[in-house]
Amino acid sequence: MTVPDTRVLGCDPAGIAEAAALIAAGQPVGVPTETVYGLAADALEGEAVARIYAAKGRPSFNPLIVHVPDLATAEAIGIFDELARGLVEAHWPGPLTLVVPLRPGATIASLVTAGLSTVALRVPAHPVMQALLRATARPLAAPSANASGRISPTRAEHVLASLGGRIPAVINGGPTQRGIESTIVAATGGELRLLRPGPISVPGAISAARGIEAPGQLATHYAPAKPVRLEASRAEAGEWLIGFGPVAGDATLSVSGDLVEAAANLFAALHAADAESPPKIAVAPVPEQGLGIAINDRLRRAAADHG
Ligand code: TXA
Ligand code: MG
User: Hey, which end of the chain has fewer CB within 10 Å, N or C?
Assistant: First the structure.
């Protein structure tokens, strides 16, 4: 996505209202939090989330943190056990992110969780991010507001230097207080696991390294259980075809060949392919450009898992 100019909005009610209107229109907006500036978009809209990836130029899809105004909103999206609830009661609002099981029926876009059945949730303390959450009345997916491979921004000027001309606006809330990303802890059954150290220390959490040794505890990425064949122009016997553009499939990522739409539909298509009866999955070619790079990265990993 290219936009002629990135507007710098004030952190007054007028600026918040403009940012909320852009987010309601499906655009990502730079916004201060107490840790780093985030690039926020409506977490319920897959195409809005795809535009975060398009703006960052990220070559792969990782699950994103969902920001919500309070614990009640978080509990509508994720399932908090006693350990998780104890942590968030002590540290929310604040720089702590909890990875918890996704609540069945929650309507978070599958691109936000990259197809996983867990979701990362955080209630930020920053008054500007809080005001934006209230103004949009939407959960906001937000990774750090920097281009892929660049360091996380702690001032609006950093966001402009990295993403200027690629996003419609950034809210200027001055320098962030913490300067480093939130602590991430997984509470998905069993012990708490530290996935990323950060401003808050969680003495009871075991290291992620140990967590990974316990099989099945926390998948790092979603992949279909069936063999995947790439660059398919049609389905062969026993294959369920994921189409793109001119190749019409059982599900088609985007009939018009739009990569934003295709990214938004990717994980739902993979889940559907896994759920249908054909034992194999075929996928039409997707151009290796823009968001197609991240789409192909995920498809190649899905294919390699059975290679
Ligand atoms: O301070 C912060 O956390 C900032 C501000 C903007 O809130 N956000 C941020 O987001 O750092 P991001 O997207 O750069 O980092 C999200 C991290 C990734 O390392 C991702 O792998 C992990 O969270 N994550 C998200 N969902 C996950 C899940 N379901 N399971 C495991 N890890 C997850
Ligand atoms: Mg980052």
Answer: C
Nearest CA to ligand 1 atom 10: 143
Residues 262 and 187 in one domain: no
CATH of the domain at 149: 3.90.870.10
Query: Do 171 and 126 reside in the same domain of the chain?
Result: yes
Q: Tell me what pLDDT residue 208 has.
A: 74
Claim to verify: residue 66 and residue 142 sit in the same structural domain = yes
Q: Any idea which ligand is nearest the CA of 162? A: 2
Q: How far is the CA of 78 from the centre of ligand 1 (A)?
A: 15
pTM over 0.85: yes
Domain that residue 255 falls in: 228-304
Whether 16 maps to a domain, the answer reads: yes
Per residue, the 3-state secondary structure of the chain, as one string, reads CCCCCCEEECCCHHHHHHHHHHHHCCCCEEECCCCCCEEEEECCCHHHHHHHHHHHCCCCCCCCEEECCCHHHHHHHECCCHHHHHHHHHHCCCCEEEEEEECCCCCCCCCCCCCCCEEEEECCCCHHHHHHHHHHCCCEECCECCCCCCCCCCCHHHHHHHHCCCCCEEECCCCCCCCCCCEEEECCCCCCEEEECCCCCCCCCEEHHHHHHCCCCCCCCCCCCCCEECCCCCCCCCEEEEEECCECCCEECCCCCCHHHHHHHHHHHHHHHHHCCCCEEEECCCCCCCHHHHHHHHHHHHHHCCC
Give a yes or no: residue 207 inside a domain: no
Q: What percent of the chain has pLDDT over 90?
A: 90
Of residues 203 and 142, more confidently modeled? 142
Same domain (yes/no): 174, 37: yes
With the most atoms of ligand 1 within 8 angstroms of its CB, the residue from 33, 39, 97 to mutate is: 97
